[in-house]
Specification:
Layout lengths: L2 H8 L3 E2 L2 E5 L6 E5 L2 E5 L4 E6 L4 H9 L1 E6 L5 H9 L16 E2 L8 E2 L4 E13 L2 E13 L7 E3 L2 E3 L10 E4 L2 H11 L4 E11 L2 E3 L1 E5 L2 E5 L2 E2 L7 H11 L4 E3 L4 E9 L2 E14 L10 E2 L4 H6 L1
Parallel strand pairs: 13-20, 14-21
Antiparallel strand pairs: 1-11, 2-3, 2-6, 4-5, 5-10, 6-9, 7-8, 9-10, 11-12, 14-15, 14-18, 15-22, 16-17, 19-21, 20-21
The protein binds flavin mononucleotide.
Length: 300
């Protein structure tokens, strides 16, 4: 690997910056760590990757606790202090007009005020990973302020979060019956995931009649796959059950739709496979449609 390219490429990752507070024989301290991340939901755990020369690492190893304070986009000057000096050189937390802190509930180090998230952590493990040490802490107290926005660190510079991206979901206006047919399937899920087959011939698009929850609906052959089951195999099995002998292409097509009926909306992701019927399949001619409703149009 070309070291020069690697060094430049590394700067193109994007992170936030944690302000890591600690206390120990060297005194109370704060360091900046872009390599701060959540690594477990339950229990909630946070990992910070710290260079062995940092005073923070010595403090954490001594006291087995630390504070994680995720910096906001108006705290770049604090990050510069925490990351630009070592506690060996400077009592950073006491630089005039800089950090405001509050007393922690369960650990000794103070927490930094005005951050997006503050987490009090008890040390679970340390492990040397390359030239840094991974420090993993279990959260014993957490709070956040949703009005604040995190600082973004990229190419050695600080940024604000930009605007939110569109969800790239196509809105399809459907009638009440179609909406109910799908929304009953969702069982409260935020996104309904379906797998279907696009089977075309000169007679049109192949649809199948489904009756679920007392609602009958004609739609392309589709089913709801089980979690962890291969989508292509699932739809092939489903087609077989429908008595359809089909050649399916290998490449899946992903359609992310937002079904809308008046004020009601439902997110549905369709994974579709193109295919054609083998001559052995006996298909009732009624199963082909040429005139496509908005949903069939979106799925064709
Ligand atoms: C934006 C920024 C991000 C940083 N991220 C890390 C990091 O993830 N890990 C690390 O070991 N040092 C990181 N540093 C450098 C430390 O903050 C720096 O070495 C600091 O002086 C250590 O302080 P201490 O010796 O008082 O613990 C970063 C510095 C800056 C400015």
């Amino acid at each position: 690997m070309d070291r020069k390219i690697a060094k430049a490429a590394q700067r193109h990752f994007v992170t936030g910056v944690g302000l890591i507070t600690s206390s120990g024989s060297v005194g109370q301290n704060v360091m900046a760590a872009e390599w701060t991340m959540q690594v477990s939901f339950e229990p909630l755990m946070i990992a910070v990757f710290i260079h062995p020369t940092a005073t923070t690492l010595k403090n954490i190893k001594e006291t087995k606790e630390f504070g994680v304070n995720i910096s906001t986009d108006d705290q770049a000057s604090l990050v510069n202090i925490a990351g630009g000096y070592s506690r060996k050189d400077l009592d950073k937390l006491n630089v005039k007009g800089s950090f405001r802190f509050y007393k922690s509930r369960y650990i000794k180090p103070p927490m930094i005020a005005g951050c997006v998230v503050n987490v009090e952590c008890k040390l679970v493990m340390t492990k040397k990973v390359g030239d840094h040490t991974m420090v993993v802490g279990k959260a014993v107290s957490i709070r956040y302020n949703k009005a604040r926005k995190p600082l973004v660190y990229h190419t050695g510079r600080y940024f604000k979060l930009g605007s939110m991206l569109e969800s790239f979901r196509k809105t399809v206006k459907v009638n009440e019956k179609t909406f109910e047919f799908f929304s009953k399937e969702t069982a409260g899920k935020f996104i309904l995931k379906c797998v279907g087959a696009q089977i075309r011939s000169h007679q049109g698009l192949l649809v199948s009649k489904y009756t679920r929850n007392k609602i009958s609906h004609e739609i392309i052959p589709l089913t709801i796959p089980q979690k962890g089951k291969d989508y292509r195999k699932t739809i092939l099995d489903h087609l077989k059950k429908l008595g359809l002998d089909v050649n399916l292409k290998k490449k899946p097509i992903l359609k992310r739709l937002l079904l809308q009926n008046k004020k009601k909306v439902q997110r549905i992701n369709f994974v579709l496979y193109e295919g054609n019927l083998n001559s052995s399949s006996s298909v009732n001619t009624k199963q082909w449609v040429l005139k496509l409703d908005p949903l069939l149009k979106a799925l064709s």
